[in-house]
Write a structure and sequence with these properties.
The protein has one domain: Rossmann fold, CATH 3.40.50. It contains eight helices and nine strands. The two termini are 19 Å apart.
């Protein structure tokens, strides 16, 4: 269903610092590798949109690495999510996941359908994985909810570097579940940020942002779904800028930085007092 005029995403240009990037040779495709987590509910929406809309004449997807969500066991994930969502919504989430699994819907399945190589690993910082990644000669590595902090070895594995998709305004909403925390704080918009990756978490220069309106009474489920779709479109824009050498990073003012951990039950209760729901 198309969005009405109050729900259109507003893209913000970032052009406050010199451009350190150089354009690719004329006619050569940008080689892209994705690193992400196995999420059949939300992150998959990013890949559905990206794979449907990306310019195949301009980009070559050389691989996808899919890791376990939060890089944890299923039991640990279940405990974490149950604590946040509560029994009723947790059961509803489980039913959704089961439905997706039964239909064979996953990020890995999308990659196989598109003929994109799956490059598995237990850790993106494992030396063997880094060597294999470098052998594919990616121009850009894109992190979409990747569950690990990238160390210098992998950060230096792509010709134009690594970029990350973060569902919050930086550096204010660094950390976990930024969409939740923006709604929790009463923000009018959820900000999607694409930024350079550096050894410090969520601290690299911003390449582009977009804002998605949060309704007065909204659902975390809806906002997370729609911002993942818009993030895919924003990444396409940034990759095009990287290929053409027109990207202009904006350095972060880390004096305004904060960090958010995974929300607790009390945080969910405050979210509901603002008139929002989880699902």
């Amino acid at each position: 269903m198309p969005m009405d005029s109050t729900e259109r995403v507003r893209t913000i240009e970032t052009s406050r610092s010199a451009n350190p990037y150089h354009s690719l040779p004329l006619g050569r495709k940008l080689r892209v590798h994705f690193i992400t987590e196995d999420d059949p509910l939300y992150v998959i929406r990013f890949f559905e949109t990206f794979l449907e809309e990306y310019p195949r004449r301009e980009f070559e997807l050389v691989g996808v690495t899919v890791q376990a969500a939060f890089n944890e066991s299923l039991v640990a994930i279940a405990k974490r999510v149950f604590s946040l969502y509560g029994a009723t919504d947790f059961a509803r989430l489980l039913a959704r996941v089961a439905e997706q699994r039964a239909r064979g819907r996953s990020i890995a399945a999308l990659a196989r359908r598109e003929g994109i190589s799956l490059v598995p690993t237990t850790s993106v910082n494992e030396p063997g994985f880094v060597r294999r990644l470098r052998a594919a000669w990616p121009d850009v590595i894109v992190s979409v909810a990747a569950p690990e902090i990238f160390k210098p070895e992998i950060l230096g594995s792509a010709g134009l570097g690594c970029i990350n998709v973060h569902s919050g305004r930086l550096p204010v909403y660094r950390g976990m579940m930024p969409t939740f925390w923006q709604m929790h704080a009463g923000e009018r918009y959820a900000t999607v940020t694409v930024h350079e990756m550096v050894p410090k978490l969520d601290a690299g220069a911003v390449l582009a942002t977009a804002e998605y309106p949060i309704r007065r009474r909204d659902r975390l489920d809806r906002v997370m779904t729609e911002t993942k779709r818009e993030a895919a479109r924003l990444v396409i824009d940034v990759l095009r800028q990287l290929a053409s050498g027109t990207t202009t990073p904006e350095l972060l003012d880390m004096t305004t930085a904060s960090y958010f951990s995974f929300p607790k039950r009390s945080d969910r209760q405050k979210l509901r007092r603002r008139g929002h729901r989880m699902l």
